[in-house]
Every structure is written in C-alpha cells, then in structure tokens.
Prior knowledge:
mainly alpha
Amino acid sequence: MKHFLTAARLLALDLASTLVFLVLFLLTHNTALAVGLGVAFGVVQIGVQMVRGKRIDTMEWLSLFLVVAAGTATLLTHDPRFVLFKPSVIYAIVGIVMLKPCWLNRYLPEIAQKVVPDVALRVGYAWAALMFVSAGVNAFVALTCEITTWAVVMPTFGIVSKIVVFLGGFAALRLTARRRIRAMPEAQREAVLALEGAAAPAAP
C-alpha cells in the first residue's frame, strides 16, 4: 500500500504542476511566465515537505527533475508540449509500481483476499495496463494536438477511464466472490462469511 499510495500521490502532484502551467499558458500565452511558475510550483512542493521534515522519496526527486527538465526544454525550444509530455513519464512509473503482483489485495477485506485472490491479481494488472495506456495516449495527444485539445482530452480520458476500470474491477470481484461463496459447502461458506463478520466494527 505504501508504494502504491506514493505513486498515486506523485501522479496527483504532477498533475497539479502541469495544470498550473496549462492554466497560466492559456490565460497569458506567455510561455516563459507559465513555465517559470510551473517549475516554481514543483520546487515549492518539494520545499514544503523539507520544511515539514518529511522524507522525500526518490520518485519525488525524479518528479522534480522532470518538472525542471521539461520546463527548460520548453524555454529553449519555445514548444510548450514538453511540459504536457511529462505526465507520460509519471504514468509509466505508476504502471511499473502496479505491476507488483497482488498489490490490490492490500485494499481488499480479508474475505475477498481469501475467495478471489486470482481476480484481484487480474484487476491489479488491469490498473497497470491503464497507466501504460494513459502514458501512451498522453504522449500522442501532447505531440500531435494543440494545447487546448490536450486540456479537454486528457482530463476527460483520465476521469472516464479510471471510473470504468474501478467499476469493472469492483463488479468482477463482487460478482465472482458471491458466486464462489454460494458454491461452497455449507460449513466452508459459514467459515468464510465469519471473516466478513469479524471485520465489521462491533456495535456500541
């Protein structure tokens, strides 16, 4: 869970710095200003954690490096698409983290871990696949489309695709678990259902 949450937090932070750049660029059409403030935002994100005494992971330093590198490339080439390409790298990193077998089990109740661990494994890989697809889609849109198109396509794709994978994975886990529990011998079924009861909070 720790590694997954770190990756997810990095993705959110990366999106924030990219959106700062995007909004400023669309409002001012000033590449230097938008890049400068976008890079500054990324530096502040790291600085705040240092001031608070929080440990900064290697991936967070990598995210900061990507902010600075993409910003520098944009300033040198006057091509703002370098900044928009950066989320592809973060998506790929998150996808690699999600390739760890059974990472999703840590999010599941004990009964689900016992009854549908194979389904959870496949759902976890589906999330990893979504991250790699998102990296490819973002790179394609950033390199071939206008910034205004990216601003519409990527947020829409990001939200819709994640909702679809989440609901599909939840349905697969839920329906398979119910079917398998119903097919169990009575004694085994009662033992498995007892896990669900043990996980529920005691009544006051």
